[in-house]
Write a structure and sequence with these properties.
183 residues; mainly alpha; 5 helices; 0% strand
Length: 183
Amino acid sequence: MEQSAQQAQQLDHLASAPSPGAPPFAAFGMPGLGGLPTAVPPEPRPILELDGEAREDELDGLSDWVDDFFLPVYGAEVTTAAPWCLQWQEHDDVVAWLHALWLAYQHHKDPESGPSGLFVWHRDFLTHAVAAIRAPGGPLSACMTSPDRPAHRRLPGPPPSVRAEAATMAHAAGDAEPDEPAP
């Protein structure tokens, strides 16, 4: 008898009109149809935008991926046509390239990327990134070009633009910024 009463209660509940304001498909748990919201993973941020411990943690993970996976598989021989640097973490442009490559790798190895996910990573990301990083005139060109002669040298970048230099001089002199109206 008790079980029949519970079933009758459940039938009454299912047959009753939904409460006002309740999404029509909430019971099915379908996102976008009033169901349970799915947890959104945090947006990945470029490593150069991170500071302090967040940047160090990300650089540790990236270094592990580069040392344990990337270099053994895709490192190839170090030559003048394909330089490398044992201190690549000190080259911000190389860190940015490798970090972007690592994020793309994580995305494309995910089962949701399908069976061709890693092919897309190789075709669209790996080839281009390696060509840019290890180019003869690229960011590591002043570093190691022979495994017998480890080297590290950061080449100077371009100077600031004339506009940026003028703003710096004006700021140092206590003047208003060039774009700011004078008081």
